Automatic annotation (TrEMBL):
Domain Polymerase/histidinol phosphatase N-terminal stretches: 5-79
Domain of life: Bacteria
Name of a matching Pfam family: PHP
SUPFAM superfamilies, sorted: PHP domain-like
Annotated GO MF terms: phosphoric ester hydrolase activity; zinc ion binding
Organism annotation: [Clostridium] leptum DSM 753
GO cellular component: cytosol
Protein name per UniProt: Phosphatase
Length: 243
């Protein structure tokens, strides 16, 4: 199995990433990708892009170097009510919205519990703006997987299998495997992403793909494992790149 789209990538606009749009696009072409989404961080993340960055993404062409481009954001979950830092006037025209929990962007002093994290994800499962549930395997933010994973499926969310977790969140890998097994059990679609912070990572998701292969994960549930499946999801989201 391979991926034909990488839909979680960062640029120097996030300030803790180190490549430009064009460097990422060129890397996507070299990796044989058909689609690339750039998803710099929402405003709660320290060092995130300014408001005009997102408003002006309308200037980005739909295709560069043969790679179709999606404009996106990695929104931060800021509380356990499932609030995300989606800024309506800045983000409303973006194609791709990831929701992720980061310790540095929670605006509540409440310590995370399985119950509170479960509530947050249940609310996000119903949020029509969100496409992807980002790297949700961190032990600190463990939730009731059996209860929530089917709700992600019912809400049309793609559960991310994040290759970067195998490098920088290694304590999450066992949970990533459990989440993937439950997606397999309940027929919930996933998307394999790199969460690239440097261009050489774009399109290279070997560790995540190996884990899916090891558990016999059905390829038809991996949305970005074929152009046809990815196009179908874009159609569901009313995203038109190739018109």
């Amino acid at each position: 199995m391979r991926i034909i789209a990488d839909t979680h990538c960062h640029t120097i606009a996030s300030t803790h990433a180190y490549s430009t749009w064009m460097e990422n696009i060129h890397a996507a072409k070299e990796a044989g990708l058909s689609y690339l989404a750039i998803t710099d961080h929402g405003p709660t993340m320290p060092g995130s892009p300014g408001r005009w960055y997102f408003k002006n993404l309308k200037i980005i062409p739909r295709q560069v170097e043969g790679v179709f481009l999606l404009t996106g954001v990695e929104c931060n979950v800021v509380d356990f009510d499932g609030t995300i830092d989606y800024v309506e006037d800045e983000h409303k025209n973006l194609d791709w919205v990831i929701a992720s929990i980061h310790s540095s962007t929670l605006l509540t002093k409440e310590a995370p519990t399985v119950e509170s994290c479960t509530n947050a994800w249940l609310q996000i499962a119903k949020d029509p703006r969100v496409c992807v549930i980002g790297h949700c395997g961190q032990p600190k933010f463990k939730f009731d997987y059996e209860r929530v994973i089917p709700e992600f499926g019912r809400g049309g969310k793609l559960v991310e299998i994040n290759n970067n977790s195998f490098h920088v969140r290694r304590d999450a890998v066992i949970n990533c495997r459990e989440i993937a097994l439950l997606c397999k059990k309940h027929g919930v679609r996933v998307i394999v992403n790199t969460d690239s912070h440097f261009a050489t990572q774009v399109g290279h998701a070997g560790l995540a793909l190996k884990m899916l292969d090891d558990i016999g994960f059905p390829e038809e549930l991996v949305v970005n494992s074929s152009v046809e499946r990815f196009r179908q999801y874009l159609k569901e989201r009313n995203i038109h790149l190739e018109d």
